[in-house]
C-alpha cells in the first residue's frame, strides 16, 4: 500500500536513508561500491542490474555481479595507467553499457566522473574539459574524432580510452579499453572516499558566462536513494526505465545512482526517439516505472493514440516526468492512454535530487509541480531581498533552505558564481512559481535568460560566443522562442559584418556552424538578421526585450537596464 505524503512528512529525517543504506557517519562512502558490491553482499549478485538494448534490438543483460566486476576492472585499469583519485575523468559516449558501468568504475577509483552528452560538438566539449582540467576521456570510435581535434588545446588531458577501440587505428594517447577483456583485478579495493569527497561533475548552463561545473559529493546518494524510492516509487521487482541520457543530471541521479542504490533492475535503450520503438521496448521488457520528460510525452502524443493502443503496456505502474513544465494536456493524455497520470517532479543539476514533486497517491493537480519532498524546505521569494512572496496570486523565485544531502557543494573553480545563488539564507533556483493554498507549487517560468529546449538548459552566452566566431557575424543574441513540442527552441538575432548580405544560405550555414561546434540542441532553429541589437548604455545586449517579443509579452520596464 502506498504511504501517504502526510505520513512521509511525520518525523522525517534523512538518517532514514542512511540507515537503509547502512551508512555510518565518518565511515568511507563510495557510490560505486553502494551501487554494485553492496547489492552483491545483500544477495542480489545474480539479479539483472542493467538490461541494455540498442536500436537494432540487440540486447545484453548485466547482473549486479557483472556490474561489480566490470566496474572494478575499469577502476583498476584507470589506476594502473597512473590516473589518481580526484582526477576528473570524462565519459563521452552514447548510452553504451560502458557508460553506466564506467561511471561506477571512475567513482570506485576515487575519480571525479564528468559525463558529457555525446552529441556535443568540439567547442562544447573543449569548454567543459578545459574548465575541469580533465585528465582522461573515455569515449567510443564514433566520437573520438571530436576529442582528437581539440586535444592539443587540452594540456591536462593525458589519456583517451576508446571502449570499442580494440583492433582499430588509434592515435596516441588513445588506447583501447574493452570492459569485458580487462583482467579481473585480484583483491581490488574500492578507494575509501568519504561522504564529502567529490563524485560527479555535471556542467550546467546559466545566463552569464560559460557553463558551470556543478560539484556533487558521494553523500548525494542519501537523497537520490530515498527520492527514487518514495517519488519514483521503486520496489524490488520493478523494471525501471529512465529515458534521460547520463550526460545530464537526470540520467545519473535517476538513471544510475537512485535506482541502483535501491537494487532495482533498469532497462536502457541506446537509440534516439521513435514512438513505436519506445512502446515496443516498454512492452517487451514489461517496464513498470518510467521516468520521462514533457517533450518526449508531447512527441508521443503527436504520434497519436492509435499507435500506443497496439502495445500491451499494462505493466506500467507509475509514471514521472521532469525537466520542463508538464502541461495539463500531457497529464490528461497519459491518464487516457496509460490509465495513469504522469507525476511531475521539479529539481535541478544543483539540487541533485527531486525537491518538489507529486508524490505517489497524492492528488495530482494537472499543471502543478506538487509539493516539497520531506526534508526540503521550499518557498517562493523576492529574488532581490529573499523575502517570501506567498500571498494569494503572488509569484516569486523558488527558494530552498540549504543543507539537503545532494545539494552541490559549489561550482568547479567558481565559488563566486555559486555564492551569488544565495540570498537571505535561501538557495535560489532561478525559476518563478506561485504556491496555492494547499501548498502546491505552480511553475511560471525562468527568472533569467537560460533557454530550456526539450528539457535541456542551453546558455545564451555559449551560443553567442560561438556565433561570433563565424566570419559574417558582427553581433549576436540568442533567446528562447516558443515551440509546440520542445517548449522552447533557440532563436538567434544576428547583425552582419559589412560586406555580408542576409539570405537563406547564410542562415543555414550559420545554423550548421553552431550545430557542429556546440550541439543540435544549441543550434538556432531560426536566425533573424537585424541592423543592430538592443543594448544598455554600457553596451550589454538586452536579451529580455527580444525574448519578450518572441513570446508576445510586454517588455516591461527597461529603464534600469538602460542605465547599466
Ligand atoms: O527551469 C527548471 C527546469 O529545468 C531546470 C533545471 O535544469 P537542469 O539543471 O538541467 O536539470 C534538469 C533535470 C532535473 C529548472 O531550474 N525544470 C526542471 N524540472 C521542471 C522544470 N521546469 C518546470 N517543471 C519541472 N518539473
What would you note in describing this structure?
With 564 residues, this protein is of the alpha/beta class. The protein folds into two domains: 5-432, Rossmann fold (3-Layer(aba) Sandwich); 451-551, ANL, C-terminal domain (GMP Synthetase, Chain A, domain 3). 31% of the residues lie in helices and 23% in strands. The chain contains 19 helices and 26 strands. Strands 2-1-11-10-12-13-14-15-16 form a nine-stranded mixed β-sheet, sandwiched between helices. Strand 20 (426-435) and strand 21 (441-446) form a beta hairpin. Helix 2 packs across helix 9, helix 7 packs across helix 8 (141-150) and helix 9 (221-230) packs across helix 10 (249-261). The longest helix has 17 residues, at 64-80. The chain is globular. The N and C termini lie far apart (58 Å). The model has no long low-confidence stretch (mean pLDDT 95). The structure holds adenosine-5'-monophosphate-propyl ester. Adenosine-5'-monophosphate-propyl ester is lined by residues 204, 248-250, 322-326, 344-349, 369, 429-431, 443, 446, 452, 457.
- The name CATH uses for the topology of the largest domain is Rossmann fold
- For this structure, the quaternary state is single chain
Ligand species:
adenosine-5'-monophosphate-propyl ester
Q: How can the largest sheet be summarized?
A: 9 strands, mixed
In total, how many beta strands?
26
CATH class of the largest domain: Alpha Beta
What is the domain total for the residues?
Answer: 2
Mean pLDDT: 95
Amino acid at each position: 500500500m502506498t504511504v501517504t505524503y502526510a505520513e512521509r512528512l511525520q518525523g522525517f529525517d534523512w538518517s532514514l536513508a542512511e540507515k537503509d543504506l547502512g551508512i555510518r557517519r565518518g565511515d568511507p562512502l563510495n557510490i560505486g561500491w553502494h551501487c554494485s558490491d553492496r547489492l552483491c553482499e545483500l544477495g542480489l549478485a545474480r539479479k539483472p542490474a542493467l538490461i541494455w538494448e540498442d536500436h537494432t534490438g540487440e540486447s545484453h543483460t548485466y547482473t549486479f555481479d557483472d556490474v561489480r566486476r566490470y566496474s572494478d576492472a575499469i577502476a583498476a585499469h584507470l589506476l594502473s595507467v597512473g590516473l589518481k583519485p580526484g582526477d576528473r575523468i570524462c565519459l563521452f559516449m552514447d548510452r553504451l553499457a560502458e557508460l553506466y558501468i564506467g561511471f561506477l568504475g571512475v567513482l570506485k577509483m576515487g575519480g571525479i566522473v564528468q559525463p558529457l552528452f555525446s552529441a556535443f560538438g568540439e567547442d562544447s566539449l573543449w569548454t567543459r574539459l578545459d574548465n575541469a582540467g580533465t585528465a582522461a576521456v573515455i569515449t567510443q570510435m564514433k566520437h573520438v574524432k571530436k576529442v582528437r581535434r581539440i586535444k592539443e588545446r587540452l594540456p591536462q588531458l593525458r589519456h583517451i580510452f576508446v571502449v570499442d577501440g580494440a583492433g582499430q587505428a588509434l592515435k596516441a594517447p588513445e588506447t583501447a579499453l574493452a570492459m569485458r577483456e580487462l583482467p579481473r583485478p585480484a583483491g581490488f579495493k574500492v578507494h575509501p572516499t568519504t561522504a564529502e569527497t567529490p563524485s560527479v561533475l555535471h556542467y550546467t548552463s546559466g545566463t552569464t558566462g560559460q557553463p558551470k561545473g556543478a560539484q556533487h559529493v558521494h553523500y548525494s546518494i542519501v537523497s537520490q536513494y530515498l527520492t527514487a524510492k518514495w517519488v519514483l516509487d521503486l520496489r524490488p521487482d520493478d523494471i525501471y526505465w529512465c529515458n534521460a541520457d547520463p550526460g545530464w543530471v537526470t540520467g545519473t541521479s535517476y538513471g544510475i545512482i537512485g535506482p541502483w542504490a535501491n537494487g532495482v533492475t533498469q532497462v536502457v535503450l541506446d537509440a534516439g526517439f521513435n514512438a513505436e520503438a519506445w512502446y515496443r521496448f516498454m512492452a517487451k521488457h514489461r517496464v513498470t516505472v518510467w521516468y520521462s520528460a514533457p517533450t518526449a510525452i508531447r512527441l508521443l502524443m503527436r504520434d497519436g493514440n492509435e499507435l500506443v493502443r497496439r502495445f500491451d503496456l499494462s505493466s506500467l505502474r507509475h509514471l514521472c516526468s521532469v525537466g520542463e513544465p508538464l502541461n495539463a494536456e500531457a497529464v490528461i493524455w497519459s491518464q487516457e492512454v496509460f490509465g495513469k497520470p504522469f507525476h511531475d517532479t521539479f529539481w535541478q543539476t544543483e539540487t541533485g535530487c527531486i525537491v518538489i514533486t507529486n508524490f505517489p497517491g497524492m492528488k495530482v493537480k494537472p499543471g502543478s509541480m506538487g509539493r516539497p519532498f520531506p526534508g526540503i524546505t521550499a518557498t517562493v521569494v523576492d529574488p532581490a531581498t529573499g523575502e517570501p512572496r506567498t500571498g494569494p496570486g503572488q509569484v516569486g523565485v523558488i527558494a530552498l533552505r540549504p543543507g539537503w544531502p545532494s545539494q552541490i557543494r559549489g561550482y568547479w573553480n567558481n565559488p563566486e558564481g555559486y555564492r551569488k545563488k544565495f540570498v537571505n539564507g535561501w538557495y535560489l533556483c532561478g525559476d518563478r512559481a506561485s504556491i496555492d493554498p494547499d501548498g502546491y507549487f505552480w511553475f511560471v517560468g525562468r527568472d533569467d535568460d537560460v533557454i530550456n529546449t526539450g528539457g535541456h538548459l542551453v546558455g545564451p552566452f555559449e551560443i553567442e560566443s560561438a556565433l561570433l566566431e563565424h566570419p559574417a557575424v558582427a553581433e549576436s543574441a540568442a533567446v528562447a522562442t516558443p515551440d509546440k513540442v520542445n517548449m522552447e527552441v533557440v532563436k538567434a538575432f544576428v547583425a552582419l559584418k559589412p560586406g555580408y548580405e542576409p539570405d537563406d544560405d547564410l542562415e543555414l550555414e550559420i545554423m550548421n556552424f553552431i550545430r557542429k561546434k556546440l550541439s543540435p540542441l544549441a543550434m538556432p532553429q531560426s536566425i533573424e538578421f537585424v541592423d543592430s541589437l538592443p543594448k544598455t548604455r554600457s553596451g550589454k545586449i538586452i536579451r529580455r526585450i527580444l525574448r519578450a517579443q518572441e513570446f508576445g509579452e510586454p517588455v516591461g520596464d527597461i529603464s534600469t537596464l538602460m542605465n547599466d
